[in-house]
Each structure stands twice: as C-alpha cells, then as structure tokens.
Amino acid sequence: MPGADSPAPDAAALRAALSDRYAAVDVVASTGSTNADLVAAAAAGAADRTALLALAQTAGRGRRTRGWVSPPTGLYLSVLLRPAGVPVARFGTLAMVAGVALVRTARAAGVTATLKWPNDLLAGSHSAKCAGVLAEVAGSGPEPAVVLGIGLNVGPVGTAVPPGAGGLPATSLAQEGGTADRHAVALSLLTELDELERAWRAAGGDLAAAGLLADYRAHCSTLGQQVRVELPGGSELRGLASEVDGTGQLVVDVAGTQRTLSAGDVVHVRPLP
BPL/LPL catalytic domain: from which residue to which, for each copy (predicted)? Predict the structure, then answer.
C-alpha cells in the first residue's frame, strides 16, 4: 500500500508555503476538536483565515452533534473565516465549497472521489466514506465568523473506524491507492480551499456566481439516484434526488412533487437498491 507510514505535516513548512494565504497555520499533535478550538478562538478575536490542524482528536464531532472517530493516520483541519460581505444565511454553503476542494485534493493524491450530499467525500468501488465536513457559525455581531472543519482519512484506517451512523464503511486515500503523505495532502487541501473560498467570498457567498455550483453538481453522486431520506422523528420520504439548488439544498422528486431539503432537515440520505 503506497505511503502507509502517513508522514505528518511540517508546521513550519506549511506556514512558509501558505503565508500569503492564511493569517496563521498551527499543527498540534492532539486536541479535543479543532472546530471547538477555533470557535473559542473566534470569540477571543482570532484573525480571518486562521487554520488549525491536528494529528489526532479525542472529541471530534460531525453533523447533528455526532461523534467523529479520528484515527492517528488522518488529517483534522479547521479554518476560521470572517467573510465580510457574505450574508450569514449563506455560510452553510461553505460545506459545498469544502467538498469541491476535497475532490480536487483527492485527485491530486491519486484518488477519484465523489460527493454524497450534504457533506461526505466517497471513494473506492464501494463508495466508502473518506472525509466529512462541518461548518459552524461562530459568534455574531459586526464581524460574524464561521469555522469550517474537515476530517480526512489519509493513511490506512484498518478497523479503527467503524461504519458511520449512516452505515457507510470507512476508507482512506492510501487504501484507495493514493498517497498517505499528510503534509502533501494538507498543503494541497489548504491551497485548494483558499482559492475556492476566495471565489465564493468575492461572489458574496453565491455558489453559482462563484462558478462552484456546477462544479459541485458534477461531482455529486447523490444526484440522479433514487434515495430514502430519513427525517427527524422517524419519518422518511423516497424519490429521485434531482437537483442541488443554489443555496445547497437537495431537491427530491417524490411521486412528481418537488421536496426541497436543507442539511438540517435530514438525518440520513441513503441510495435505494
């Protein structure tokens, strides 16, 4: 398996390479949650484009407050952003921006990947989960912030990561024949994310105007699938995932009726057999 030793990021080298893109780039051996750390940093006045990487997390979290298993061969990254001029209502679409950045990063690492709406990177013949994204608004006031978190499996995960709450098995870049060099992957991901977020910010958070909506749709394997959508309270709906709209919502055709769902509306989206 290529690069199974999963070399760790070099903090000094990352800072030097990204000094014109990020206000700060820090790497820690372990923390509870990089998102929680940067939410606290935002409250303390940390600068726009502050990035924190951890080699391990002890209290990682995902969507709907689920836990996130963080094996020591992964990459756990959060970026604090203060996108002046972007309405807070559009902050959630940053998860889609991150999704496109992840697809490009995987490609650079030698892996073909797709996106499962709303926030998963899938890879391999069994469409296993390779990464997840979580965007959290951090504070309000005249300069609201958002923390964008990404958990990416880089080196082999083995049996350390059980199937997630949605039943998806775990995989990694290395397990799909790609690199396990976490420094190279971190540099690639932070570079891609910077470029795409700048386009998103310049367009006022409008995915279509930034040229990112078509890119996301092209990589979204959920589109065109017959799906079962599990809703809070135990109900569900079934239909064709026909569209992702400009606000990042999924449109499902249920027997001819268009149902529009936000990420917060759903528990799981699963393809039907």
Answer: 26-201
pTM over 0.85, yes/no = yes
Q: What is 223-271's CATH number? A: 2.30.30.100
Q: How many CA atoms lie within 13 A of 188 on its CB side?
A: 21
The amino acid that residue 152 corresponds to is: L
* Cα dihedral 188, 193, 198, 199 in deg (nearest 10): 100
Overall CATH class of domain 11-217: alpha beta
For 74-105, how does the pLDDT look when each residue is reduced to its tens digit (9 = 90+)?
A: 999 999 999 999 999 999 999 999 999 999 99
Q: CA angle at residue 185 from 8 to 247, to 5 degrees?
A: 130
Placement of tokens 């390779």 in the chain: 130
Alpha carbons within 13 angstroms on the beta-carbon side of residue 245 total 12
d(CA 154, CA 7): 10
CA-nearest of 56, 53, 58, 55 to 7 is 55
- Tell me how far apart the alpha carbons of residues 227 and 252 are, in angstroms, rounded to a whole number: 8
pLDDT tens-digit map of 174-226: 999 999 999 999 999 999 999 999 999 999 999 999 999 999 999 999 999 99
Q: Which of 150, 145, 217, 218 is nearest to 189 (CA)?
A: 150
